[in-house]
Amino acid sequence: MPKILTAPRMARCIGCDSCMLACARMIYKSFSPHKSAIQIRSRGGVMGRMVANICTACAEPVPCVEVCPTDALTTRDGGRGMVYRKAECISCHKCVEACPVQVIGWDEEEDKPIVCIFCGQCVRFCPHDCLEMVEVE
Amino acid sequence: MLHDDVIRVLHINLTSGESRVERRADLFQDYLGGTGVAMRLLDELVHADRDPLDPAQPVIMAIGPLTTIYPVVTKAVATFRSPLTGEYGESHAGGQFASALRYAGYDALVITGAAERLVYLLIDGENVEIRPAEALAGMNVIETGRVIRDRIEGAGHRSIIRIGPAGEMRPGCSAVRYANVNVDTFRHFGRLGLGAVFGSKNLKAIAVIGQQHLDLPKDSRAYKKLYAEVYDRVLHTDAMKKYHELGTPANILPLNELGALPTYNVRQGFFGEADQISGEAFAENELITKRACAGCQIGCIHVALYRRPFAPGWEYESTLVAYDHELVYAVGSLLGVGDRRDVLRLIEDIDKAGMDTISCGTALAWATEALERSIIEPEQFDGIDLRWGDAERYAQGIAAIARGESEVARWLGQGEVQAARHFGGAEFVAAVGGQGVAGYWTGYAHVLGHLLGARHSHLDNAGYAIDQKLEAYTDDAIIDRIITDEGERIVQTSVAICLFARGVYDLETISRALDSVGIQRSAEQLQAMGERIYWERVRLRERLGFEARLEDIPERFFETPTPRGQLEPDRVSNMLEIYQARRAAAGPAQ
């Protein structure tokens, strides 16, 4: 069963940036929280609520996979979400535009997309248990 | 600066409108960041012969080498000449500011000069703009933040620091000398009047947007491993538990039980209604969420729902107010206010006007007693007759101080020490060395800590904790502990960690963390650097008028019993001598 990232308990979020820093550090070799496939935002300022912009792991047909002109993005086994192969990517930006929830970021230095690989590092470094990896059919 | 052994200083001159970036290898080598760098830059740029509110005076802000990239390294350190004391000013703030500055690509900011009209600064990476803010004149800190946030909506990490009306230069009245700078709504450069310095420069706010990319080191294994280790120590040991659970107001009940909660302008150390304003009571009834500074997994910011009826027919209005021990003390026990909603109301009023809550509380406490003794009269104070526990009158007093129109209101805006110098009543100010004290009445170390430190509640030593924990409570032991605290903390604040994580970041851990990102400093080297910074700061403070004098402690503090008994002037004098002898024997390093 493939696992996908979910954010079921965002009402507990304290806005610490720890998940973004974890994704940047563990996956994108970066100190910078904007190089992260999970982005935490406050809606209505810090007095508002916290929201997580994360990959929803679309079911087939996966929109970003559909538009990818190469094999850089392919559907994961089990049909939810995608597998990313950086070596195949031609930096066309089509996946960014196709993402229905607009969570594919762009790494300006690498000129490549920032996509979730469903590794769960952000879950490991969330202090308030806001995030969860969930097995899906 | 990561990967580059320099401090990148952004200089902005508000008079000429020019900005430039300076790369300082010497600052990085000798001062590292935070307190060290901010102190050194102030030393270079401050004018000892000019008023604190002279446009030529600089405002310095510095972050540290590990800012945001290690857990709980969240602080920006500001230095300035304090308009409250006339002396060295150092104030630390969390929020998103330090992080935004890091990703904007700067280690330090230097602001000099004054704009002709009210302005705000936008620092968006390389792009620095001075934008008009006349439309924001008189606007409270919440609205100011909202308006600027709407203007700069977009990507990247951002922070908006701003002053309220109390800090602004207004025709016919002077700024409140303990006006603060609000940082991202819930945090502050609180103490010693940085907000008034902003006002003197016609600077309403600074917005910082950071989007710079910083690569991990080529071999990042040690960094990732140590990050995870520190993360686990922060979250899964008792090191920081207290700050996460009830937060700092966890102190209210235990202090009260000891007789160490300053009450009624420090006429006593216990408050009959403490259980109503305890951390437990706030948590059970008003706490709705916690918030964190960028890069801190603790989330000590306790946010209360301040909900109150405004008309018959179940009409309610609600706002969110962050509360902390010091605030609950300053407008609670110190003023005899024992109702939680009243406490939240007063915190909110002071905060929106842009004033330091502790200093405003100690000014109101002095004024209440001065009115009781007819040293001042309501007719001199907008007709307000303050009474212990009467929140409505305190709210009027807060508004009056922020307006600064009546004679007493203006003097209270200079701080209770100046007010007492003018009207009389210096014997009962709740202040040491020109600044209102933090919320403890524990004994000698607390009072001495205030007198000796850079006059920030917990910056240089935790005197209140020494009083509570020290077993052999001798003069020598007390001074030993103060000096030990100072030695460790000056390194920690030069790395700009949050001092709530002081138990996690011992010098060895700091050394390893620096090493993991390519900065080599042994624990011994850090210690030596701390000593050097300490002495340079002593000299700078002396140049700006500092002297540790017994006379700077009010008589009241020798009358009200502490858990360590009634304080004796002779013992304080003796400890001051021991301190100076001990310090002189160990240094000063030239």
Please summarize what this structure is.
The complex is a heterodimer of chains A (137) and B (590). Chain A is of the alpha+beta class.
Reconstruct the topology from this structure.
The complex is a heterodimer of chains A (137) and B (590).
Chain A: E1 3-6, H1 18-26, E2 39-43, E3 49-53, H2 63-67, E4 73-75, E5 82-84, H3 94-98, E6 105-107, E7 112-114, H4 121-124, E8 132-135
Antiparallel strand pairs in A: 1-8, 2-3, 4-5, 6-7
Chain B: E1 7-13, E2 19-24, H1 25-31, H2 34-45, E3 59-62, E4 76-81, E5 88-93, H3 97-104, E6 108-112, E7 119-124, E8 127-132, H4 141-151, E9 157-162, E10 181-183, E11 187-189, H5 194-200, E12 203-210, H6 221-236, H7 241-244, H8 252-258, H9 279-285, E13 287-291, E14 301-311, E15 315-323, H10 325-331, H11 340-353, H12 357-372, H13 391-403, H14 407-413, H15 416-423, E16 431-432, E17 435-436, H16 444-452, H17 463-469, H18 475-495, H19 507-516, H20 523-543, H21 569-586
Parallel strand pairs in B: 1-6, 7-12
Antiparallel strand pairs in B: 1-2, 3-4, 3-6, 4-5, 7-8, 9-10, 9-12, 10-11, 13-14, 14-15, 16-17
Helix pairs in contact in B: 1-2, 2-18, 2-20, 6-19, 10-12, 11-13, 13-14, 14-15, 16-17, 18-20, 18-21, 19-20
Description of the structure:
The complex is a heterodimer of chains A (137) and B (590). Chain A is globular. The model of chain A has no long low-confidence stretch (mean pLDDT 94). Chain A contains four helices and eight strands; from the N terminus they run E-H-E-E-H-E-E-H-E-E-H-E. In chain A, the strands form four sheets. Chain A has a two-stranded antiparallel sheet. In chain A, strands 2-3 form a two-stranded antiparallel ribbon. In chain A, strands 4-5 form a two-stranded antiparallel sheet. By secondary structure, chain A is α+β, with helices and mostly antiparallel strands. With 590 residues, chain B is α+β, with helices and mostly antiparallel strands. Chain B is globular. In chain B, 57% of the residues are buried. Helix content of chain B is 39%, strand content 16%. Chain B folds into three domains: 7-210, Aldehyde ferredoxin oxidoreductase, N-terminal domain (Aldehyde Ferredoxin Oxidoreductase,  A, domain 1); 261-424, Aldehyde Ferredoxin Oxidoreductase Protein, subunit A, domain 2, CATH 1.10.569; 435-586, Aldehyde Ferredoxin Oxidoreductase Protein, subunit A, domain 3, CATH 1.10.599. The chains are: A alpha+beta (137), B alpha+beta (590). The interface between A and B is medium-sized, with 24 and 40 residues.
